[in-house]
Structures are given as C-alpha cells and as structure tokens.
Design a protein that fits this description.
The chain is α+β, with helices and mostly antiparallel strands. The chain is built from four helices and four strands. It has a four-stranded mixed beta sheet with strand order 1-2-3-4, covered by helices on one side. This is Curli production assembly/transport component CsgE.
Length: about 170
C-alpha cells in the first residue's frame, strides 16, 4: 500500500510539474507576443502619441547630405550657420557631403573654403566682421550649386567603368 501511495504521489507531482511547466511556457509566449507587439508599435509611422511622420520634401533618405563644421572663429561659425540654412532647402547642395573649413589669421581675417572630398568648390577671405558672413554665405551657395551641377553633368556625360566618380574630374 505504501508503494502504491508513493507511486500515485509521484504521478501527481509529475502531473503538477507538467502543468506548471506548460503554464510558464504559455506565459513566456504571451510575453514574447507582447514584446513583439511593443516593438511593432514603436516602429509604426503613426501612433496615438503623435501624428504620422511626413515624407521628406525630396523623397530621399534621412542621411543623404552632411555638412561638417570645421570653423573656429565667431565669424566662421556665423558663415557656417548662414550657409547651412541657405543650403538646407537647396536640392543639389542638400544631397552633397560638404566640409566647411576655416584657417583663422589675426591680421587678414579667416580663410574659408568649402570642399567635397578632395574637391574645393568655394574659397574666400572673410574679415572678422560678422555682418559680412551672411552676404558671403549667399554667394557661396550659388557658387557651390553651380559647381555641383557642373560635376553632375560631367559625370553623366562621361561614364567610364574603369574609373570611380572621384577620378573622372
């Protein structure tokens, strides 16, 4: 009789263990489903928390154009801000990766130049007066836009499979 009682209690314990194991498996499945749902909710373009994300004006990726600020002086920073604000809405300049660099000089002001890779598109001598930076930035946007258009036209007309795009010009 003791043997039978131990056998039944072992069966009951095994059954209880099985039920607990299945319950925790269902709970972990429910947790993984809720985790997946939470990730999907985060990745949605619209949610109850805010409006749907609008497509960009030009329909391009978020990381198409970059402007690197390598200016040092207040006049250089003012030039960079003015140039980047004017160029932000420009479709041609907005797709380029540009670096605005400055070499300050106490006597003559600052040398500023705008480059893409190893190509210099614009270079000027900027006086320490900050008021001049806005005017020069407007000129720089026009010059850089024309240079980028010329480069794109040249690249479109002369295609060589053996040369990279930076080697064509």
């Amino acid at each position: 009789m003791l043997k039978t009682l131990l056998s039944h209690s072992a069966n009951v314990l095994g059954l209880l263990f099985f039920v607990l194991l299945m319950g925790s498996a269902n709970a972990s499945e429910e947790e993984s489903v809720s985790d997946t749902q939470a990730v999907d909710d985060i990745n949605q373009l619209s949610s109850p928390d805010g409006p749907e994300i609008q497509n960009r004006l030009h329909g391009s990726s978020e990381l198409t154009g970059i402007m690197v600020d390598r200016t040092i002086t207040m006049a250089g920073k003012t030039f960079y801000r003015a140039f980047s604000q004017l160029a932000m809405d420009n479709r041609i300049i907005g797709n380029a990766t540009l670096t605005i660099q400055e070499r300050p000089d106490a006597r003559w002001g600052s040398q500023l130049w705008i480059m893409e890779g190893n190509k210099m598109y614009f270079r000027t001598q900027l006086s320490p007066r900050i008021s001049e930076a806005d005017r020069v930035a407007g000129e720089a946007v026009q010059v850089v836009q024309e240079a980028l258009l010329q480069q794109q036209l040249t690249a479109a007309l002369t295609s060589d499979k053996d040369l990279g795009k930076e080697e064509l010009n």
